[in-house]
Amino acid sequence: MITFWFEFASTYSYIAAERMRTLGEVPPRVVWRPFLLGPILKSMGLETSPFNVWPTKGAYMWRDVERLAGREGLVFRPPQPFPQNGLQAARVATGSAQASWLPDFVCGVYRAQFAQGKNIAEREVLRGVLEDVGADADDALARAEAPETKNALRAATEEAAARGVFGAPSFHVGDELFWGQDRIDDALAWRER
């Protein structure tokens, strides 16, 4: 089994989520796990994305993601602001972890942010994505606000950190960690060992 750790503000998670869905790596073959990278970065002394801290690294990332998106046939444009606040989207995904539409929702949120220039912190943006994937938007948004959902997302973030996740996307196959969208094939091959 593969656990796919993704962060909604992550440019490379956008590419990874679309690729995982295209490959058919959806539940139950893969566990899609949203988490919050901000608390993990904060524990490393960073207050924002490393791509904002180091401008040269940021400039490279924007061009790299643009190339990767083109290769995958995806539209990409840098969002404003960056990073966006993906907390509510992560709560919706956490509260709907068993829903058959979860991968479509995840990819829809990424497209809203990285292709359509929408602010994913806005409830109406998430409502639109939920409606587009055929979900009961009122139910999903209500579950996102439930204390047990908030606690589950917090626990997922703590679990990711405890298991060595330091960036997004990341993949676990058992205890083996693979970091980066360019490690999807390695994770899939490891699963087949």
Summarize the structure.
This protein is α+β, with helices and mostly antiparallel strands and 193 residues long. Helix content is 55%, strand content 9%. The chain starts with a strand and ends with a helix.
Please, could you describe this protein's structure?
This protein is of the alpha+beta class. The protein has a single domain (2-192), classed as 3-Layer(aba) Sandwich (Glutaredoxin), CATH 3.40.30.10. It has ten helices and four strands; from the N terminus they run βαβααααααααββα. A four-stranded mixed beta sheet has the order 2-1-3-4, sandwiched between helices. A hairpin with a 2-residue loop joins β3 (170-173) and β4 (176-179). α1 (11-22) packs across α6 (102-114). The chain is globular, with a radius of gyration of 16 Å. The N and C termini lie close together (11 Å). The model has no long low-confidence stretch (mean pLDDT 96).
Distance linking N and C termini: 11 Å
CATH fold node name: Glutaredoxin
- CATH architecture assignment name: 3-Layer(aba) Sandwich
Distinct helical segment count: 10
Spatial shape: globular
Find the count of extended strands (DSSP E, 2+ residues): 4
Task: Write down the secondary-structure element order.
Answer: EHEHHHHHHHHEEH
Helical fraction: 40-55%
Low-confidence stretches: none
Beta percentage is: 5-15%
* CATH class group: Alpha Beta
Secondary structure class reads: alpha+beta
| Lateral arrangement of strands in the main beta sheet | 2-1-3-4
CA gyration radius, whole angstroms: 16 Å
Number of domain modules: 1
Main beta sheet: 4 strands, mixed
Question: CATH H-level name... which superfamily?
Answer: Glutaredoxin
Mean pLDDT: 96
